[in-house]
Every structure is written in C-alpha cells, then in structure tokens.
Amino acid sequence: MSYILQSIFNGLLAGCIYALFAMGLTMVYRVLNFVNFAHGELIMWGAYLLYLFMGDPFHFPLYVALIPALGFTILLGLGMDWIVFKPLRRTNRLTLLIAALGISFFLRNGAQLFWGAELRTYGFEIKRGWRLFHISMTANQMAIILATLGCIIIVYLLLYRSIIGKAMRAVSDNLELARVTGINAKKTIRFTWIISSALACVGGILLALDTNLQPGMGMINLVKAFAAILLGGVGNVWGALWGGIFIGLAENLSVLFISTGYKDSIAFGMMVLLLLLRPRVLYGSQE
Q1: Strand 130-132 to strand 135-137: parallel, antiparallel, or no bridges (unpaired)?
Q2: Domain count of the chain?
Q3: Measured between alpha carbons, how far is residue 277 from residues 165, 271, 283 in Å?
Q4: Alpha-carbon distance 30 to 21, whole Å?
Q5: Do 246 and 8 touch, CB atoms closer than 8 A?
Q6: Is residue 67 in some structural domain?
Q7: Quick one: pLDDT at residue 283?
Q8: DSSP readout, 134-202?
Q9: Cα dihedral sign for 91, 199, 38, 278?
Q10: Which end of the chain is more exposed for a tag (fewer CB within 10 A), N or C?
Q11: For residues 153 and 25, is the Cβ–Cβ distance under 8 A?
Q12: Which helix (H) or strand (E) holds 132?
C-alpha cells in the first residue's frame, strides 16, 4: 500500500512540472496558433541559467539566482519570437514548425557547447526526508508543489483578473477582430511569450531540483508537455494543467506493472495515439 501511495505522490510531483511546461506551451498555441517546438529548450536553458548564476563566478543563492535566470529566459523567448517567428507570422504553420525545430537544435547544441554533455546538479546537500501517511517526501519536493500552486494562481489572476489577460483571450479567439476593437495585438503577443518563457524556466528549475541537468532534458519534456495539451484539449490552459498531472500519474503508476526504463514510453505512446485522433494540431486550425 505504501508503495502505491508513494507512486501516486511521485506522479503528482512529476505532473506538477509537466503542467507548467504544458501551460506555457499551450498559451503560445492559443494566441499564435502554432506549436513552438523550441519550448523544450526554454525549459532546458532556464534550468542551466540558474546553474550558471549559482556557480562561478557569481555564487548567488538560489532565491537571488532565480531572478536573472527568469529574466534571461524571458529575453530568450522574446528574442526567439522577434528574430524568427515574427517575420514568419503570416506564412503557413509548417514553416513555423520547421523554424521552431531549427531553433531547438541550435539552442540545445549551444548549451552542450557551453556546459558540456555530462549530467550536472545544483550541488545541494542531500538531506533526509520525512514520512507522512506512509509517503516519503523532501523539502525540494514540497517546494515543487508550492511553486506550482503559486504559478497556477498567478496565471489565473493574469488571465481572468487583468486587462492584458482579457486581451490575450480576445486575441486567441479572433486576432483581426481584436485589432479592430483597439486591442494592441503586438503587446499581447509579447506578454504571452513572457508568461510562456517564465513558466518554462520555473518548470525547468523545479525539474532539475528533483533530478539533474543535461542538454537533452528539454526535448523529452517537450514531448510530455505536448501529450498533456493534446489530452487536455489544444489551446485550453486548464486542460493542459490537468493533462500534465494525468501524464505524471500515468507514468509513475505504470512502474507498478512495467520496468522504470519504459516509463517515458507512456507519454510517447499517448502522444502518438492522440495525434492519430487530432492530426491537424501540428498545422494549426483551418482558416
């Protein structure tokens, strides 16, 4: 029984992180109607930027290093849009998809060139966890849950309790109509990239806190985020949240029946199945 409870808890932890990835990914899709396959590299760079500012020559504590890591990840997301996606905005969705894949390879290889391909960690001292209701948990794991809840509350307030959130929802419904009614579409798109990049950064950092860092961490988690948004409904932020949690639970409960080495195949299998059911998501909705 304790093993099942522990698997459920681990699944919720993983699901929290996947939910942040999926929410950021689906927000860009909702407003710009294309899948940003470079989102995984924002996840990876966010985690590595925290590693950079916590190491030589800065040696910032985590709560201080988080600020420049977030800032530079957001600038990376905005730069990605301004340099590559904005000039291609009026082209077809396949062109944007190929451009996103190109950025993904460029950023992944850039990180590998700078930090190397070996596994890295933030170097925190390993501390003994505590047990509650037959579940073992650590301070880092509790931080993951609290940080995820904080991000969800912030996203909710931004989307439903702010003017820019209303503008984002209007642009996602109909871009041309939103422009006619006086909504600043450029500002709205820019703000969407800020939120998406920030969620990717926070999610990447939380993932690295619980596991480790390596240049390929973005791609595998992009697939899981993509499976989550397909499961929760493409363009649905809250569906992406629940989809991420479902993927995390499915992965970790599957180890009760299969080897842990096949755990990642759960997300891949679900993604393939859902793509067979919703193939047009890669190309955007039909005009």
Answers
A1: antiparallel
A2: 1
A3: 31, 10, 14
A4: 14
A5: no
A6: yes
A7: 54
A8: TEEE-HHHHHHHHHHHHHHHHHHHHHHSSHHHHHHHHHHH-HHHHHHTT--HHHHHHHHHHHHHHHHHH
A9: negative
A10: C
A11: no
A12: strand 130-132
Read off the pTM. Answer: 0.91
281 burial level (CB within 10 Å; 0-12, 13-18, 19+): buried
**pLDDT at 79 (0 to 100):** 96
| Residue with the two structure tokens 């993604």 | 271
User: What does the alpha-carbon distance between residue 85 and residue 95 come to, in Å, rounded to a whole number?
Assistant: 10
Range of the domain at 192: 2-120+140-282
Residue 134 within a domain: no
* In contact, 195 and 103? CB cutoff 8 Å: no
Nearest Cα neighbor of 68 from 51, 44, 43 is 51
Question: Is 84 part of any domain?
Answer: yes
CATH no. for residue 229? Answer: 1.10.3470
Residue 246 covered by a domain: yes
Residue with tokens 């679900």: 270
The answer to whether 263 and 255 have CB atoms below 8 angstroms apart is yes
Query: Residue for token digits 């899709």?
Result: 29
Read off the pLDDT of residues 235-264 as tens digits, 9 standing for 90 and up.
788 899 999 999 999 988 888 888 777 777
190: Cβ contacts below 8 Å, ≥ 6 apart: 78, 81
Listed residue (253, 239, 281, 248) closest to 267, CA to CA: 248
